[in-house]
Amino acid sequence: MFKFFKDFVGVTVAGLNDLPYTIGEPYSSAWGSWLHHRGTSKDDGSPVSIFSLAGSNAQDGHLAAGRNGVKRLRAVRHPNILSFLHSTEIETFDGGSSKVTIYIVTEPAMPLSDKIKELGLEGAQRDEYYARGLHQIAKAVSFLNNDCKLIHGNVCLASVVVTQTLDWKLHAFDVLSEFDGSNEPSSTQMLVIIFILILL
User: Fold this and answer.
1) What is the rounded distance in angstroms from the CA atom of residue 155 to the CA atom of residue 168?
2) Which residues share a beta bridge with 160?
3) CB atoms within 10 A of CB 15
4) 101, β-bridge pairs
5) What start-end ranges are recorded for coiled-coil regions in this protein (predicted)?
6) What HEC string does 39-58 produce?
7) Is 176 helix (H, G, I), strand (E, B) or coil?
8) Could you tell me which of 195, 181, 137, 141 has the C-alpha nearest to residue 163?
9) Dihedral angle over CA of 114, 119, 120, 122, nearest 10
10) Nearest C-alpha neighbor of 171 from the set 51, 53, 55
């Protein structure tokens, strides 16, 4: 079963040294149980983002959701969705216990909350930036719902990151599922984003 998954989504089981990226300091926030790290390519030193998710065994529910997130992010391409670069899954053993960690490498980005604090925008400048960012996320959610027939079950502040060009992008697809007629898209998902922005 795991071999099928590995072949299907391109995840490899390898050692951390085999990862062609260097993992740096984590950001203070990330989506769900994921950690969001700064990183660099070992080939040319270019910046990347590295997301990691650890579980106590291969059947952990968080890991199952994380694997779904890897599969979805790898398959979906859109200007307002974070660009996937690489993924791997590593199992380490310490004494009698094992630990499984999933790594996703993407284009460089930082959490929206961190970028908002860093920019320190006020007044009309802040409002314009929020409106532009909200429009970008709305386009990503529309693409997922209407073009891909996928439903994003949880659009929240932590599932939005900001690239080096200050574009807002959606990621964190652990709870993304296919629309099959029985799981109607939530009409409140856009409102969730709006309320979050109002509270910032």
Assistant:
1) 13
2) 170
3) 10
4) 54, 90
5) none
6) EEECCCCCEEEEEEEEECCC
7) coil
8) 137
9) -120
10) 51
Domains of the chain: 2-106 (3.30.200.20), 109-199 (1.10.510.10)
Residue 88 host element (H or E): strand 84-94
d(CA 106, CA 187): 29
Max alpha carbon distance in the chain (Å)? Answer: 58
- Summarised one tens digit per residue, pLDDT across range 144-185 is 777 665 555 555 556 789 999 999 998 877 766 554 555 454
Token representation of residue 66: 């994380």
> What distance in Å separates the CA atoms of residue 182 and residue 53, rounded to the nearest whole number?
30
- Report which residue type is found at 128: E
Q: What is the pLDDT of residue 37?
A: 97
Please report which confidence band the pLDDT of residue 137 belongs to, taking 50, 70 and 90 as the band edges. confident
Q: How many residues does the chain have?
A: 200
Q: Is the pTM of this model over 0.70?
A: yes
